[in-house]
Amino acid sequence: MGGNQTQIKFILLGITDSPRAQTPLFVLFLLTYIVSLVGNVGIISLVRVSPSLHTPMYFLLTHFAFIDICYSTVISPRMLADLLSEDKTISFTACMMQFFTFAFFAAIECHLLAMMAYDRHVAICQPLLYVTIISSRVCWQLVASSYLFAFLSAIIYTWSVFGGSFCGPNHIDHFFCDVSLVLKLVCSDTHSSEMVIFAFVTINVVGTSMIILLSYISIIRTVLRMCSAQSRARAFHTCAFHLMAVSLFFGPAFFMYLQPSSRHGSLDKVASIFYAVVTPMLNPFIYTLRNKEVKGALLKCRSRFFNHWQHRRVLSLRT
């Protein structure tokens, strides 16, 4: 990428070109982004202050919430600004950095979902060995390796997309710099780049989804062999939240990145909005609404805060 290459500017056409729809969409997505930030920060804070949640599953969940914050922040602020701005240009460097960070956090999210599935597999299928297999050290090693592999993947992924020559149209019919639409603007041959991209998508998306699938096949077989109906219901209930998060993330991702480039169309924006903007907002609700452990921790925190407030109030009245 030479000096002339970095002087290129792209134009993001955004979600819609209708002026009447832009303000309502801005309000809707701003609220979505705020709820996403508050919900995920809330999960991280609750796990940190609640000793009952200091377990491997919630350790992974805090990283998952952190990645959701970063993931949505890469996309949402720029999208919100473009909805109210007439100037939708983005520099070559900014486009490349947005793509790099998006690919980095998306890859980590794939690996975290696979780790959470493996955690549930060990907890249900090998409960007596859970503490040994999923130790604190193992959790840190798994998370650190996922960050490292995602970083290397994002570098190669970004070079494959932006390493070609851009000399034609500069309009991107999307609200962020996504792989298929940027590649359409490359003048040089993209066959080798597409092969590299396909390989890394296969590793990060298909590979992790296969780990999740195999983990849940093993979980289902173990649960069906349980004698107690109550034990089966508890096991399925434990896994239901994670399966919902997996479906919300991998469903649109498979639709977007594992279909032929000729079939990309208007539904791509809807799928991208869903997994890049809506899913990070929904995940905190999925993991808290019917989770008894999280509800119990919330009640304890509320009681602790109320007692502390009452104590401060009594002291102030005495003085």
TrEMBL record:
SUPFAM superfamilies associated with the record: Family A G protein-coupled receptor-like (SSF81321)
KW Transmembrane (keyword) present: yes
Compartment(s) of residence: Cell membrane; Membrane
Coiled-coil region(s): none
GO CC entries: plasma membrane
Gene Ontology molecular-function annotations: G protein-coupled receptor activity; olfactory receptor activity
Regions crossing the membrane: 25-46, 58-76, 96-118, 138-159, 195-219, 240-258, 270-289
Function: Odorant receptor.
Family, as annotated: Belongs to the G-protein coupled receptor 1 family.
Name under which the protein is recorded: Olfactory receptor
Source organism of this protein record: Melopsittacus undulatus (Budgerigar)
